[in-house]
Each structure stands twice: as C-alpha cells, then as structure tokens.
C-alpha cells in the first residue's frame, strides 16, 4: 500500500516548496504533488505528516568512522591530529557489529540515512572479519553504508622516515614502539579481500551497502597504492575515499616530498576524477580549487573535527563557488560530541561565511544540499538516486518538527517566506528529526527506532568498555610536538591566507 508523506512545506534542492507531498510505494518515491492531488490519486494510501512538520530528503554523512562513541568519550582527549592519532591504539575495542549498530542508530535519530564508514581496524589481520561484522551492524540499524576498508603502506608514525623520528626518542620509548610499522596487511591481500567483499556485499540496485576502496590518507600511501585503488574503483564502478590535507603538516609533507602541492601530485599520477572523495581538505591551495572542481573530485567537509583536532578551517565557500561538489561529514567528532547532523550543517554554514566583503558567500540552501543530495552523490556516486524528493528516487525522508522549530505560538505565516531556509538551518537540531524513512520503511517514529532498542545496545557497549588508565601520560607527545614544530619554521610560496 502506498504512503503519502507531507508537511507544511518540503525542501526541494534546499528550496522550500509549499504543500509539496510525496507518494511512496515499495522503496521509492512514485509520485509528488499537493496533498489534495495525491489524496485524489491514491485514495487508499496511508498518510503520515501534517502541518506541524517540514519534509526534507534525508541526510548523508559523507565521512565518518563508526566508533559508537566519540574518541574523547572513549578516553582520548582532543589534541592536534598527529598527537591524537598517536593515542588511538589505546581506544577500548568495541566489537565492530555493536559499534556500527550503535553508530547507525545515533545517525538515524539525526535524520541521517546513509553514512560513509572509514573503518579503523581493531586488528589489520582480521579486517576480512571485521568489515562484514560492521556491515551487519549498519544493516540491522537500517542505515545505508558506503564501506571503506582502509589500507596504508608508509609513514604511519610520522610523515617522514621512521628512523629519523625514532632517533629523537629516549631508548626506553623507542623500544616500546617496537619494530613494527603497525600495518601488516599487504596490498595483494587487501585487494583480494576487497574483491570478496564486493562480490558478497556491494548492492548497486538498492544501494543498501557499497564496497569502496580507501587508501587511508595521502601521506600514508605510496603513489602506486593510490593508483591501484583508483583503478580498482573504476573497474568496479565504485568510489575511492581518502583523507587529505587535514593538517598543515600534511600540506608540508607534499612540498617536502615533491616540491608541489598534494593536489598537483594526485593530478600528476592520474588520481583525480569524479570517482574520488577527499575528506577534510583544510589546507587546499587556492590555486588548486579550480582543478579539483574541473576533475569533479568530491570533498567531504568535517568542520567540527577540523576545529576539535586543531587542524584549521577549510576554504569551503571558495570550493563551492568553483562548483566543486562538497558534502558534509561528521567524522565522529561533532562540536557537542553527539552526532547532531543539523548542528553540524549550522556550524559549516556559520564558519563557511568568512570575514571580508570579498569572501565568497555560502547560502543556507547550498548548505542544505551539502547535507542531502550532494553528500549522497559524493558518497554513493551519481548512479544512486538519493538525497532528493524526485519521482523514482529512493524514499529516504525526514519529517522535522517545524512547530517546535518555530515556537509554539508562532502564527502560520511566520517566519517571512524569504527567511525560511536560513531560519530552519539556524534553529533545527537532532531532536527535531521526528520521523525518518529509509527506502520506504519508517525506521524512526516519534524520535525512537521502530525495531531496535537503542538503550539496550548502549548497555551492551558499556558492559564491554575497558578504558586505558586515565592518568597514563602520552609519552610520545612532546617528541611529536618537537618533530613537527621544526616544520613550522619553513614556508612555501603558495601559502594560503
Ligand atoms: Zn576521518
């Protein structure tokens, strides 16, 4: 039986349209029109919504890690990315199934129905088991996932020769780090595993799960590995996602290594194209913005994470002005540590509009699209009909509590029409996502999951958490600071303001 979903208005490509309802049958939107028109055409359809709601396509979280809880909550305080990374081995291990299930439930409550999951292995040697377990967790939550099993093959300790850094350390600390590079998965084994995962899980029809390839970060992967990943993705009509230019030290690594920017290096080896999504891009050069846009490279913008890990502010308004596809990702590090996607959009919008009358503008309508259709395209590719209210699209929908957003006694014509998108983006938050549909099924009704007991999953996770000793200092931190501080002394000609 079809369902008509309707609100006071609906957001189409970020623009409010009065009395726009959609009719859903099976997994897809089969029709749209006013509520009266659809009721006449489908007299037996169920109806969900009403004047107290605003209807929007659901959100896609374009970059995350599915850790269940934020790293601060798991015992690792925010710090510079390079120092924070050095501590992640101390994170308590949460079984991948439970971590994915809980992460998926949290995101759905925020109106997010699709997520890019950049996997952090508990054990690299066990990745082939961890990934299916993680997929199972997301499937049980009822959220779509673009899965990124990671691969790295260099520079994991610092963005330089390991021996040079080790020489700075006292003997005891050096011996504590051991001989291992920390990764023991060969590229051949990795791609063989990807082939298996792709065969077993990649869903190019219903788009419940995509298997993608993830050379985890520019400085951690050789050119050969990055290109092998791009070739694999193109051969399988899927995508590549990698972290890039998150910190100033990553930018400097590129100049030290090639005398050129990271983006130009990727262009030179043939990695840039519309198959690629780059997370962070805080230290994008001005002069590379046009090239990224021309090549159709997706950018996953992680504003909270970039602030919390002291990385900086990405030139998002300029990327958008150049027509680069920019989507929003939470990276598991939102400002309030709560995976609130609406607040993340608000922060991206507020900080995206920078000082100076010649700065590029970032409109509320654009930011809404960065959370919906554009985020979906850079995460699942152009072939997945997600993030829009169009006929034939997959029915991933959110009813936001417009009455709670405006305030109880607001008159019907409030706020003024032209203020509406800005008003919504300035005020809406997680709690306002009251009803969430994924592929024609309601997974959240009245703010609660329809089939999984969220609290019970949380209890299962808490039972298993064992924190590293809180008073244990991060012994390597002063040496990392010393190492990278030396990189601050040098500058390069194309420095961004
Ligand atoms: Zn990340």
Termini distance? 57 Å
Computed over alpha carbons, the radius of gyration is 23 Å
Helical content (DSSP H or I, runs of 4+): 25-40%
The CATH fourth-level homologous superfamily of the largest domain: Metal-dependent hydrolases
> How are the strands ordered across the major sheet?
3-2-7-18-19-20-21
Q: What would your notes on this structure say?
A:
This protein is an alpha/beta fold and 497 residues long. It folds into two domains: 3-57 and 390-450, Urease, subunit C, domain 1, CATH 2.30.40; 59-380, TIM Barrel, CATH 3.20.20.140. The strands form five sheets. A seven-stranded mixed β-sheet has the order 3-2-7-18-19-20-21. A four-stranded mixed β-sheet has the order 5-4-1-6. Strands 8-9-10-12 form a four-stranded parallel β-sheet, sandwiched between helices. It is globular and about 75 Å long. The termini are far apart. The model has no long low-confidence stretch (mean pLDDT 94). Zinc ion (ZN) binds at residues 63, 65, 118, 243, 279, 331. Zinc ion binds next to loops.
In short:
The protein is an alpha/beta fold. Helices cover 37% and strands 19% of the residues.
Topology:
Blueprint: E1 3-6, E2 9-12, E3 15-18, E4 21-25, E5 28-33, H1 35-41, E6 46-49, E7 53-57, E8 59-64, H2 81-87, H3 96-109, E9 112-118, H4 127-141, E10 144-148, E11 150-151, H5 162-166, H6 171-177, H7 187-201, E12 209-211, E13 214-215, H8 223-235, E14 240-244, H9 248-258, H10 262-269, E15 276-280, H11 289-295, E16 298-301, H12 303-308, H13 316-321, E17 326-328, H14 341-352, H15 364-371, H16 373-380, E18 397-401, H17 402-406, H18 420-427, E19 433-438, E20 441-445, E21 448-449, H19 454-464, H20 477-488
Bound molecules: zinc ion.
